[in-house]
Each structure stands twice: as structure tokens, then as C-alpha cells.
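Q: What residues go here?
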């Protein structure tokens, strides 16, 4: 029912500007009850998952190291790779997967809004004092495939929760990269080399930057993007909604 109505609204508003489409979706949110994408019971509009599903997701309580993940070493407690720390809020499971799928393909970035606090809570206290929040940039072709830029929606949610400014467009993805899962370390590293470019290095130089993505898996994407930020003089760390080991 909801999906059909949404499709109808999106079809009608596809010729008008995005803000109108968003208004129409927000109106639908008020009219129709939200359902938890994991178990189907009614759930809060800005969180998607119901309270029991949300509470059942295991929290990740230690920082990961993107470089150690990439090298298939123990990702916790690393002291060798400065500037490669990634803080994940959730351990990826079927509930986290259902939420991320709803966020990306449900065309409702508002779903990210209720999780800014969870992203902030994944950070140690000193890391919450950030100067800037950036979203992990994704290649334009990939974004067109799915509609909602999940990392940008989550970055906006974290920026509001901290609060800190959300800086857009400073870090860009200059080429699409193939999926990283199942590849060997040197292949993943090679695939990411040169994938990111700083458009405004001066905007991040000397600043404490938090780089947000929805999921951290092999660490290759975070390792490359954090490297680009570090090269521009930023003190950067990653934040992900979920870690999929
Ligand atoms: Zn549920
Ligand atoms: Zn490490």
C-alpha cells in the first residue's frame, strides 16, 4: 500500500523539483503509519526500526582501524596506523541491513535523522568535539542507481546531533570502484588508489574532521578517503552506522 502510494507520488513529482517530491513524501509519512522494515510492526517515522529491533542490534564498543581491516589483521586497539580509526555504532545484522536498505532504496532520507545520536554515541568524548562532518562521497553513477545518498543523510544527522557543520563537496569521488568484498588486500588497495580527490584542501587543513559512511566492511574505502583527508592536513576519523565483518 505504502510502496504503491509512494511510487504514484514520485511519478507525479518526477518532473518538478526535488523539494516538492520531499514535501509529498513527508505528507505521506504523516498519513500512513511507518512499519519496521525488519519485523513489520509500527515504528517511529524518523528511525524506521521498532524499539525491540533497534535494541537487539549489538553495539560496537571499540574503535576499528581501517588499515588493519584492509590488511585482515585484528581491527581493534591498533596503535600503528594513526588517522585510520573508524567508529561504528552497530554490528551489522539482518536488522541493520533492513534499515540501511530502507534508507537507500526507500527514497526517504528522513530515516537517517533519528540515528544521529547513535552515531555520536559511537565516538569517544574527545572525538565528538569535531570541527567538520563530511559524508563519504559516492560516485554519481552509483547514486543514480539507488536514489538516496545514505552517507550524506547520516552525515547530516551526525552534524545535527553533535552539533558541527556538515561540509559538502570538499572531498569527491573521482571514479567508481568495483565492489571490494572477495578481493585480496592488494587488489582492494589498488582499486581505491586515486579514487578520492580533495576539492577544497584548505577547508579541512588543521581541522578535526569526521567522515561518515553507512557501512564499513573491508576498510579499503575508509583507508583511502581518510588518507586523502590526512594528506590535506586534516585530523580525520571515520564514523559508520554499521560494521560488517
Ligand atoms: Zn522491528
Ligand atoms: Zn591499524
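A:
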Amino acid at each position: 500500500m505504502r510502496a504503491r502510494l509512494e511510487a504514484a507520488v514520485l511519478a507525479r513529482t518526477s518532473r518538478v523539483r526535488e523539494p516538492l517530491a520531499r514535501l509529498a513524501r513527508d505528507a505521506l509519512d504523516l498519513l500512513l503509519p511507518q512499519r519496521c522494515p525488519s519485523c513489520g510492526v509500527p515504528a517511529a517515522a524518523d528511525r524506521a526500526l521498532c524499539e525491540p529491533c533497534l535494541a537487539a542490534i549489538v553495539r560496537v564498543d571499540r574503535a576499528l582501524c581501517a588499515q588493519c581491516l584492509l590488511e585482515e589483521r585484528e581491527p581493534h586497539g591498533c596503535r600503528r596506523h594513526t588517522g585510520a580509526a573508524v567508529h561504528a555504532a552497530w554490528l551489522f545484522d539482518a536488522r541493520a541491513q533492513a534499515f540501511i536498505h530502507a534508507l537507500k532504496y526507500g527514497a526517504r532520507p528522513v530515516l537517517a535523522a533519528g540515528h544521529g545520536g547513535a552515531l555520536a554515541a559511537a565516538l569517544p568524548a574527545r572525538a565528538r568535539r569535531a570541527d567538520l562532518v563530511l559524508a563519504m562521497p559516492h560516485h554519481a553513477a552509483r547514486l543514480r542507481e539507488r536514489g538516496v545518498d545514505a552517507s550524506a543523510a547520516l552525515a547530516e544527522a551526525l552534524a545535527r546531533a553533535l552539533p558541527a557543520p556538515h561540509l559538502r563537496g570538499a572531498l569527491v569521488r573521482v571514479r567508481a570502484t568495483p565492489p571490494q568484498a572477495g578481493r585480496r588486500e592488494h587488489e582492494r588497495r589498488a582499486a581505491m588508489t586515486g579514487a578520492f580527490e580533495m576539492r577544497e584542501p584548505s577547508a579541512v587543513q588543521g581541522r578535526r574532521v569526521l567522515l561518515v559512511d553507512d557501512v564499513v566492511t573491508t576498510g579499503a574505502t575508509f583507508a583511502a578517503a581518510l588518507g586523502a583527508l590526512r594528506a590535506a592536513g586534516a585530523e580525520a576519523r571515520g564514523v559508520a552506522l554499521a560494521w560488517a565483518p
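A: Context that may help when evaluating the design: The longest strand covers residues 208-216. DSSP finds twelve helices and seven strands in the chain.
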